[in-house]
């Protein structure tokens, strides 16, 4: 029997593992799964890049027969619906897992408690809500889309001690230090998209990429709100668009100032 402290330790590890592919699993959540037996981790996995296979199935395949009688720590309720892959709840039953501990319930109407029902009907002990707040933070993008039907938005704002964001007419001015810039690049690597307005795009000529060694391929899609197509073709965004996509959101011709209608 594991203690509460042990349960929290293993769930914290599952949440940490889930962050590895955050922003790279498309519409699926980046879930972490840790399998524990006799107090030791025997397998761990995260939702694969692109969204499949899911974390639970990968961890079970790694553990194999050793999964029988183990405890699974999962950051999100195991799925119960059939899609391109069988339900993870069924896989946990098939592999003989004895106990499943979950951080966050899945609000997806195709799941929403059904995963727990499959597990409990098979005699598996199910415990929910462990490190729920931490789990929700890790799954904020997915949960916002499911519950509020919109993207989860993070505002990045660099402000000087006197409340300024730059000097007029001087273009890009460094306000933050290397530590905060590194943190920003880590945050970019966990997001699907990064958005700026056309005034920022012109004044700063930003790259909006991830510039951490070994993580460059995790740069998000860049979006520019540019009502009248003012983004210069010589900008860093345009010049790098073949490597990292750029989406320019503009008004239709009929809605632009001075046009018909």
At the first level of CATH, what is the class of the largest domain? Alpha Beta
In the CATH hierarchy, what is the architecture of the largest domain at level 2? 3-Layer(aba) Sandwich
Biggest beta sheet summary: 5 strands, mixed
Biggest sheet strand order reads 2-1-3-4-5
Instruction: Tell me the distance between the termini.
Output: 72 Å
> Order of SSEs, N→C?
HEEHEHEHEHHHEHEHE
Q: Helix segment count?
A: 9
Name the CATH homologous superfamily of the largest domain. Answer: Cytidine Deaminase, domain 2
Helix content: 25-40%
Overall mean pLDDT: 93
Shape: elongated
Structural class: alpha/beta
Rounded Rg: 22 Å
Pick out the low-confidence regions: none
What is the strand tally?
Answer: 8
Question: If you consult CATH, what is the topology of the largest domain?
Answer: Cytidine Deaminase, domain 2
The total number of structural domains is 2
Assembly type: single chain
Beta-strand share of residues: 15-25%
